[in-house]
Write a structure and sequence with these properties.
By secondary structure, the protein is of the alpha/beta class. It is 16% helix and 41% strand. 43% of the residues are buried. The mean pLDDT is 93.
Length: 488
């Protein structure tokens, strides 16, 4: 009996000891795997940072990598991480692809796979995009004092280099680069008062920040001369008298619509990715006040009265150079498919003419998964005519480089067009001068307190466009950074 008990207990003991030993060995292997995997992650990160340094410091014939992509393939694709105590920690293997439009680099996509010397079987892969931060990371990026009314509902970062009166609703940061500013009667302060960089009756004051680092609008500015060159060679170019697609002339020369605020081009995006383009030969006018001209009443030639479709329209936008460059005032509307940039600029330093962009109707996206995007860049202003739909919806990144984004004041004599119910924007507003899409006014023709413009305004930035924008969407600053960092 004693012998049997000893044998039995020995068997049980050996089973327990074996189980404990096996668990200890498994835990040891698991710990070594975790250690190797953690090292591999940091090695992959080191590979990304090293490749970023190589891109920034490497030049090739024809320019740097971030200009033309030239020289990218010649960079080393393996980076060995040395151990300070001797030997190596591991190595990273990097692959890089430049996204090109019109032969120019938009960004570089990087993939870095790291493996540790202690156990190369446990690899980690990181993906990142090397690019300048885009203006698409903001709902509003402004360069003049502004008053956001109580009807405004803003989703996404809101930034101004100058003062902000915020009476609207914000769910993200509202940032001003000044600590104080002079709030005048134009912003609801009478008499003029010194106010904090951000003040007002808005409910999101916990997210108001001032002063913060300013943003140089000079770094945001687009080189229209360069964009004109690219569009002439590979995109769609509208000279005012001729039409070129991929450097091929379409149709014959027509009467000029350039350098004339009563003429221009009308671009209608089609849901199949093509665009119908018309030459606008006549417009009708309305009285209005502009945000940058004080109380002066002016003629706005914003209503299209006569137009002729261009020979060859509808046009297919070249996928390798998706730019439409117009040297005249430009009306845009329709349903966009794919990534497209529209530029309205004269680019003639000897000419005082700076074209505007007008949005007479809705702008929608055929797809909303990030594969479709629109950027509109005007040398002067981006505006809504008085005859827009009463419920207005637009998508895109809108850049008024030297002018303003807004809707002019149309008084009660323009009823019912003086008031529009709502404007919903999904995208980004970049405006050098004061933004204004709603007015409070009183005049001899319209006694009492009156409102003109969009009565309700809803604005949200498009996160999908922030890191995958349309070609040549302006960036912020000159520094390129690793964006969209994630593990595969």
């Amino acid at each position: 009996m004693t012998t049997l008990m000893v044998v039995g207990f020995t068997v049980v003991f050996m089973l327990i000891l074996g189980t404990i030993s096996s668990y200890a060995l498994q835990q040891g292997r698991y710990g070594r795997a975790l250690f190797a995997g953690e090292q591999a992650l940091h090695i992959a990160e080191a590979g990304l940072e090293n490749f970023r340094w190589l891109i920034a410091h490497n030049t090739a014939a024809g320019g740097t990598i971030m200009s033309t992509g030239a020289g990218l393939s010649s960079l080393p694709t393996t980076y060995v991480v040395s151990d300070p105590e001797g030997g190596t920690v591991g190595s990273a293997t990097i692959t890089a692809t430049a996204a090109l439009q019109c032969g120019r680099t938009q960004w570089v996509d990087l993939s870095s796979t790291g493996s540790a010397s202690v156990d190369p079987t446990f690899k980690r892969t990181l993906l990142a995009r090397y690019m300048r931060p885009s203006v698409g990371e903001y709902s509003n990026l402004l360069n003049s004092d502004v008053w956001a009314g109580s009807d405004r509902q803003i989703t996404g970062p809101y930034f101004n280099n100058l003062g902000i009166r915020m009476d609207g609703t914000n769910n993200s940061t509202v940032s001003s680069a000044v600590s104080t500013w002079q709030c005048s009667s134009s912003f609801g302060c009478s008499p003029t008062q010194t106010k904090a960089g951000v003040f007002g009756a808005g409910s999101g004051s916990a997210l108001w920040l001032y002063p913060v680092q300013s943003i140089d609008f000079g770094s945001i500015s687009t080189s229209f001369t360069n964009l004109e060159t690219y569009a002439r060679a590979s995109g769609i170019f509208l000279s005012g008298t001729e039409t070129y697609v991929g450097n091929v002339k379409k149709g014959s020369t027509y009467s000029t619509v350039a350098k004339n605020e009563q003429k221009g081009y009308h671009i209608i995006f089609q849901s199949n990715g093509t665009v119908r383009i018309y030459s606008v030969t006549a417009t009708s006018w309305n009285w209005s006040q502009h945000v940058d001209t004080g109380s002066t009443w002016l003629h706005d030639y914003y209503r299209i009265a006569a137009e002729t479709e261009l020979t060859g329209s509808p046009f297919t936008v070249p996928s390798g150079c998706a730019i439409i460059y117009s040297k005249a005032r430009t009306w845009i509307e329709g349903t966009v498919l794919g990534k497209i940039t529209v530029v309205a600029a004269d680019a003639d330093v000897s000419s005082p003419y700076n074209p505007d962009v007008l949005i007479p109707n809705n702008i929608n996206y055929q797809t909303t998964d990030g594969t479709t995007g629109l950027t509109v860049i005007a040398e002067n202003s981006i505006m809504y005519p008085e005859n827009t739909p009463t419920v207005m919806s637009v998508r895109g990144t809108f850049v008024a480089q030297n002018g303003y984004y807004g809707r002019n004041l149309y008084d009660c004599e323009e009823a019912p067009y003086d008031k529009r119910t709502s404007l919903t924007l999904n995208g980004t507003i970049v405006s050098n001068k004061r933004v204004g899409t709603q007015w409070s006014y009183s005049s001899s023709y319209c006694p009492g307190a009156n409102t003109s413009g969009f009565l309700n305004r809803y604005e949200s930035y498009d996160r999908l466009q922030a890191f995958n924008p349309a070609p040549f969407t302006p960036g912020i600053g000159s520094d390129y950074l690793l964006q969209l960092w994630r593990e595969q």
